[in-house]
Amino acid sequence: xxxxxIFMLLVILCIxxxxxxxxxxxxxxxxxxxxxxxxxxxxxxxxxxxxxxxDNKIWILGGYDGSNMKNDVWYSEDGINWSQATASAExxxxxxxxxxxxxxxxxxxxxxxxxxxKNDVWYSDNGINWTQATASASWGIRRDQSxxxxDNKIWxxxxxxxxxxNDVWYSDxxxxxxxxxxxxNWTGRNDHLxxxxxxKMWIIGGYDDSLINDVWYSDNGINWxxxxxxxxxxxxxxxxxxxxxxxxxxxxGLNGNISTQYNDVWYSADGTKWIQAxxxxxxxxxxxxxxxxxDNKIWxxxxxxxxxxxxxxxxxxxxxx
Length: 321
What we know:
This protein is mostly beta strands. The protein has helices at 2-19, 21-24; strands at 31-32, 35-38, 50-54, 57-64, 69-76, 82-86, 98-102, 105-111, 118-124, 131-134, 146-150, 153-160, 164-171, 178-181, 193-197, 200-207, 211-218, 225-228, 240-244, 247-254, 261-268, 275-276, 278-279, 290-294, 297-305, 310-318.
């Protein structure tokens, strides 16, 4: 019997080591439950606003409400009660722009609509008064790009200007922009998302004439390494991402067809292996929403449910280990 048990133990160990089953077992499988903070906020339901965390508040900037592009600015100290900083910011109505926090200011970059794309850059230290850093940044007009702050610089990556782009630009003052590369290893794309994680910039999914689910990273903006060509989640764009509890989180999105929207939640500790969170309760399917980490929670805000034709202003949060 002892000899048999030793034999069985060796077989089990061999299964793990020889077949890679350790990679297939989700020892860190996370169950999450979302709480709705508010069903309808003071600001109108919308898609493709931007959101930042600044001055210990969540901010919402611009977007599109189904009828009009917006240039209003809203903030909240708790995710529930919202106040309007301005109904009409100087940077003008737009959506599909990007925003970051840099040098103790909020910044708005590019965006617009098909026939009114922009490459201007604006900043504010209070959300009310905005100053134009440049009317015409070197990276040219575009929308659906991604932006992060990394290595004490603002970065702009990819987007759409009539063509899908894979250039990478950076600035240490928001005024003068330098090109890190005119053609990164990843394909030209729009509606992708970016984060900073493990001291690297990451590009996640998007649209490059087809929906994609690849993931790339770089520590200098010039040389990019592919973490995976096909993440475990379905190819998509207009999703949201956040960095929370030492993982990248990816949520919701669209596969280019309104018949397939998502409200799934995935996370990764390395950008290569993605695990689907077990979700006990959740928000409805949507795309073009935003996510932020605030008060030790992931917050998911707004978006569009194409099924219902509903531009949303609901707000949800989760707390996870």
